[in-house]
Design brief:
The chain is 49% helix and 9% strand. Helix 5 runs parallel beside helix 6 and helix 8 crosses helix 10. With 419 residues, it is an alpha/beta fold. It has 19 helices and 7 strands.
């Protein structure tokens, strides 16, 4: 099979037949090209993807005018950076890595191990099981034909956890010819940029916040809202009914919500299910929160999270915001029970809390158990600012100290708490 694959790939690369193209390019054929651990994420991020053509056009210009280099897409939380990365990976079938702080997948050694495996398989690199990134890129570049390019996409550079002052993920200052890295990250200053390049390695940034891209951002957000209203299988009917009950035209809704969102896709990702689930039944369109931060704060208030009867919910959210490993509801229950006032809490009550916050959480099945993590880093950032959660820090630290790591379950709890 491998011999046949080599012959087929060789033929596909030589031919000019359009039948071998995927979205206009001849890919590096590999039946397992996208790592399994990222497939569900990529599928979710590209489900209702639209627009962003200006980003892809700028990147294509960059790789076609330079023989190597770094290209970084910069944007605030929720501006669609991960979706852009996912769409490019899906369409071009390139090596990739997603830094995900909420899952603890954000360290240089994890990145290297994952990318090493992808490059070894893709370029059939022998005896490279312990190679560093610089050597891997060099070996891979030597396998490229004259017009071939090796493009690696790395998402969320800002979520990398790495001590010292060297380049994030130990990315090399100098890249071999034919090698390009497409990166995404939040805005940074010179102190936390941590991506130094040599003079002969081109470096370019595209900041989604810049005025020159405002028109394209406006168009893409409006098109996304239209797609959600007309094609989202889960909430389309409920959203249309919400509009009909209030005699709001689709065009008016699109314009108003686009303005309220401040062109933030994460805002839309949260607000549409909230409308569909009846959370906005008593709220006029004009009174919708403005921007992602205000959306989080408004929801916090609507859930009355400062009330005295919300201590359990607050503590559960605090645990999730601090966890480096996605816990099960059973694990969360065991942690909660270590707080005296919650010692009699049962798992069913924790399940109810998790259900209340389901739109902000991501579920993943592992070894027959459902594990939970906060869906987006921006919500974790918001939670860390809330004084109601901060009150739990002392008891949280006491829980960590009290854990007996000699037992399996307590060892797992310790891993979750301490990362």
């Amino acid at each position: 099979m491998e011999k046949f694959s080599d012959i087929f790939i060789s033929y596909a690369k030589k031919t000019t037949s359009p039948k071998f193209k995927i979205e206009g390019v001849y890919p590096d054929w590999d039946f397992n090209v996208i790592p399994t651990e990222f497939r569900a994420l990529i599928e979710e991020k590209t489900g209702l993807f639209c627009g962003r053509s200006f980003v892809f056009q700028e990147f294509d210009k960059f790789i076609n005018s330079h023989n190597k280099g770094y290209f970084t897409v910069i944007g605030d939380a929720g501006m669609g950076k991960s979706a852009i990365a996912s769409k490019y990976i899906l369409s071009r079938k390139v090596p990739c890595y997603f830094n995900i702080a909420t899952e603890g997948k954000n360290k240089p050694e994890q990145f290297l191990s994952n990318i090493r495996q992808q490059l070894i398989i893709r370029y059939r690199l022998p005896n490279q099981e312990n190679a560093d990134l610089r050597s891997l890129l060099q070996k891979a570049s030597e396998k490229l034909s004259e017009n071939q390019k090796l493009i690696i996409v790395v998402d969320a550079l800002d979520e990398v956890e790495q001590e010292g002052s060297s380049n994030l993920l130990d990315l090399p200052k100098n890249l071999p010819n034919g090698v390009y890295l497409l990166l995404t990250r939040r805005p940074y200053n010179l102190e936390n940029k941590r991506l130094n390049t040599s003079p002969d390695t081109p470096y370019k940034t595209l900041d989604l916040r810049e005025k020159q891209y405002q028109k394209w951002n406006d168009q893409d957000v409006r098109e996304y809202i239209r797609l959600f209203l007309e094609e989202d299988q889960q909430d389309q009917d409920k959203l249309q009914k919400w509009l009909q009950d209030r005699s709001i035209s689709q065009l008016t809704f699109i314009e108003k919500v686009a303005q309220k969102s401040e062109n933030n896709f994460m805002y839309l990702r949260y607000v549409f299910p909230a409308i569909a689930n009846g959370q906005y039944d008593n709220l006029e369109l004009e009174d919708f929160p403005i921007g992602l931060e205000e959306y989080y704060y408004t929801h916090w208030q609507r859930m009355n999270m400062e009330g005295k009867n919300k201590e359990l919910e607050v503590f559960v959210l605090f645990i999730l915001s601090q966890s480096k490993v996605a816990p099960t509801s059973k694990i969360i229950t065991e942690i909660v029970q270590k707080k005296d006032e919650f010692k009699d809490i049962e798992c069913l009550e924790i399940d109810k809390v998790l259900d209340k916050w389901v739109e902000y959480l991501s579920k993943e099945k592992s070894q027959g158990e459902i594990r939970y993590r906060i869906y987006h880093q921006s919500f974790t950032d918001f939670l860390t600012k809330q004084k109601e959660l901060d009150k739990n820090r002392k008891i949280f630290e006491e829980v960590v100290i009290s854990i007996n790591e000699s037992e399996y379950r307590n060892s797992e709890i310790s891993e979750i708490l301490q990362g």
